[in-house]
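Protocol step 4 of 5: obtain the predicted structure for the target chain.
Materials: sequence only (see below). No template structures provided, no constraints applied. The aim of this step is simply to have a reference model before the mutagenesis design in step 5. Sequence pasted as it appears in the construct record:
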Amino acid sequence: MEIYKDLSSPESQQFQKLLNNQLSRNKIEEGKIIEGKITKITDKFVFIFIPGLKSEPIVDINELKIIGLKDKIIVGENISVLLEKIEDKNGEVIVSALKAQKIKGWYKLEKAYEENESILGKITKITEKFVFIFIPGLKSEPIVDINELKIIGLKDRLSVGESVPVLLEKIEDKNGEVIVSAIKAQKIKGWYELEKAYESNSSIIGKITSKCKGGVIVEHKDTGSLMFCPGSQISDKPLKNIDHLIGVEQKFAIIKLDKIRGNACVSRRQIVSSNKREDKAKIIEKFNVGDVIKDAVVKGYSSFGCFFEVNNEIDVLVHLQEISYSRVNHPDEIFNVGEKHDLKVISIDKEKLQIGCSIKQLSPDPFEHISNYEIGKKYKVKVDKITDYGCFCSLEPGLSTLLHSSEMSWTKRNIIPKKLFKIGDMIDCVITEIDKDKRRIAISHKLTIENPYETLADKYPAGSEISGVVSSSNDYALYVKLDGFEIEGFLHANDLSYTGNPDNELKNYKKGDKLKVKVLEIKKEDQKVRVGLKQIGVDPFDWFKNKQINDIITVKVLSTDNKGIFVKPEGCDLEFLIKKSNIAVNASDARPSRFVGGERIDAAISEINIEKRKVNLSIKLLEELQNKEAVTKFSSPLSGKNLPFSSLSEKLSDKKNNDKDKE
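Step 4 output (structure tokens):
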């Protein structure tokens, strides 16, 4: 080995360069996993060739058997090992296949743990309650409850050496143990399969296991994952009972996946409908525009039309405008579910697989001879249908009209039509309107009956007296049913008494009291009558008809308060307030406390308006009138001339003028 004596020689440097190139080419470093080829096998050891190393490392054959590489112990096979030392103190290369597998397993575990993926573990031991599993890369063997494996259907695979999928929940808990779950691994596997089926738009096999609120629970056959199927997605037609579908394996389509919550929604209806689509196309080929379909059954209706089932094969739509020549607000006004009707095919859409039909086109348009009917004339009509707001009647077959509840009676309010008429009744009605453009006819039943408001106006015009009975009341009025009429008169609280408080007067009357009232107003068009009770007696305000402003009257003091004094004129039933400011001219005398009640005093009328029924009294005005009268009667122009200094102002004025002249 002369080459190693002098390391600075060109030969030594060339050898070192060659060695470094070989090591760098194979990236040989301590602590890394490298591939080696088996060159020799003995009873105890396996020799491995690794390019770049000066010698062949050896591996214990039992080590390879422990990690499951027994089948790979063949000359020429490649195995992975961990390069622990390139050269130990004895000059040998140290490698480990077991540690290489653990490191690889650890990397795999890290990825599975981060991405929440299941991993395979090998059963090494089975007890009565637990199963021990070997997972490469873990420092200890995790355990799984044996019942957990039985629940998910792995009972037959419970044998040493079998592989089972588990989910790595925790690499190390607080007790230093590895936590795995076989059930969660199966759920994740099932979820991936559901995702794959959803993305590829393919169906899955499942069975309905139980009912729940709003639908049923479906179990995936392959993975046991539970999914929800809404009630509307069970079938393409309403089913009263689904017991025959429970527990039966069938196809479902995935219509929604919530990856965040882990929820899946499936549909059986979509599968059923897709199977029927091909059959539906063949059925539609049987029909042509203009064909008449006999005995189609009403299946259901919506705001835009009515659906019919034809021969238990296909559903067709009759649009709202094709139901009748007359106006129809909703199909339920005309049809009931289960009824049979003839239809005429008016359109066929082979792309959408839809058939449009009509009922009204089976009969001639009744509006073509609407000229046979006149507005204002009375006709017999037949009640066909009763609703909350009126009755649908027919003048003749196909010519329908609405009798609104407001046109049924002159006097009844909030009419319930079914209490007045029944289906099939023939009643008299007067046509009030014919609109050919809107194809609408308006009729009235009450116009065939005598208008009680006109009779009342003829027999009891405004100003007449009539008897009645209190039928009801509210916070501000009484309603009086007038004798001989189905009419209620409106009696306002202000019309009960001239003198009393309206609210207090209203409390004096109750339902059933008989009253004699005066008709104040009759509105025939509005169907309203106003009556009054106080108008029967004498109006106490008539006492002021001959009175004028500044007239003096005698009043009696009733009471006093801070606002003034309450008085009542002698011979009159009305009470008035003389305000504090109108008690006296002198402010010091304008005190209500001067009066104690019961005094007879005089007051002047300061304001009077018969139409507005307004009168104001004033003691102050009376004093002013009396003072004015006294001045007029007893004073003269020379009054005060003889008083001292009476001419002082005139003399001062003259003196001032003289001073100006001198200047």
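Step 4 remarks: The domain at 366-448 is CATH 2.40.50.140 (OB fold (Dihydrolipoamide Acetyltransferase, E2P)). The chain has eleven helices and 35 strands.
Proceed to step 5.
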